[in-house]
Amino acid sequence: MKKFLNKLYEKSMFKNILKISEYMLASIINAVIAAASTVILTRIFSPETFGIVNLFNSASSVIMGIMCIGMDSSYIRFFYDPPNGDSNKVLAQKCILIPIVNVLLWGSLIVAFGGEQFSNQFIGIKSISAAIFIFANVLGQIIIRFLNINYRMQGDTHKYFVQSVLTQLFLKLFVVAAALITVNNVVIIGFNALGILFLACIYICIQFKSVFGDVKKTSLSYKGYKEVVFFAVFICPISIISYLNTYTSQLIIKKNLGAHDLGVFSAAALFISAIAVFRTGFVTFWSPFMYKNYETHNKEICMANRIVILFCILGFCIILLASDLLYLLIGENFREQQQILGFLLINPLCITAMETTYYGIAIAKKNHISLINNLVSLLFNCALCYFFTQYWGLTGAVISSAVSGVLLFALNTFWGQKYYRSVDSILRQIQFIAVIFIISFLYYTLYSQKWIFNFIILTFLILELIRNKKLFSMILSLKKYNEGDKYE
Known about the structure:
single chain, mainly alpha, 21 helices, 0% strand, disordered C terminus
């Protein structure tokens, strides 16, 4: 057994999985910054204002996805293999030029001919200034995204880490500063936009030569870049749909339930960040590992599915058990309807587990299937959210989110496994969905009798740990090996 573990460690994934903490560091610090700002803002802002700020950032993400038309994904895909024998600096110039021109052109036209209507439709504020701030925020996000991708692709982890943390810090500091001096929503989102734009300008000065090189010697011709543009256009809808899933839920809640409930819903998203930390760190190394090793390391890939599902369940239970303490971080006006927390977490849990089940679609180069699956999930989420919120309020919103998350997990897992087997048991995937739904239902119904819920979940956790003790032993053995102990 020890020799087998040694072999696994030396080969691939288990050596890398012990390094997840390195990739998670930026995510952990960003989550701490987000949590700290939530603690402050939910005590300064009303739920209405807090909800508007979150809706503004979600709307900006959707528009960024549209303006980029996938050129950010093409920059990643062709970074090591630019067309025409060009350098990656030339590739960077041509990839970022289209999104920037889009923002400046469409932003100017929309602001000039329908700014008030645009901002009213997207964030519920009828103001030309708000429309300008939306596009300023999008421009800053696009610049930071491309510069951040460059650090990541160059393998410059320290600078990538610093930039990621500074981006989160600037966003939150400027909003907190605005909160201390005004209650005007337009001014607050203006500070939000100017913060990211200011940081973008700083990093353009820092990275310009290393990313873009000498622009005077670069031709604006896109001859030979047909493949780059086609790749971008066909992958673009997937990114937009991903952003839309978050934005449309918030927009429907605001329209059907009001800005107050939107603020309560947005504040509860603090708990999603705990899951996002794990997912971000895992995905950062998992994606390249899969593409590089899927042909030779299937056993380790199947093992990763078991590990991720186990940690998803454990983390889910721990968050619910500690929910009363965690909710103290949020301002008192935002602590309504805590019983919906379990259902709220189902969607991010499914998306996290899906990272180990759906790569067969990409391996088979069937991205249109992923696009269709994401679109179906989005449509279900919008339809269910619209109708459920009218009858069940926020409970309806989180149930619709949970159902759409499970649907996306099921569709992508089905097609992913058809093209590449990355799980050793479909039954385990079904059990995972059943378990998180049952736990969420128990949390919702037993919320007024927490001691019963806590007893049930603690008993379940003990049994789960016993059932998976061999898996934990394997992980601990690998950690021990990593620290220098040699098996004989």
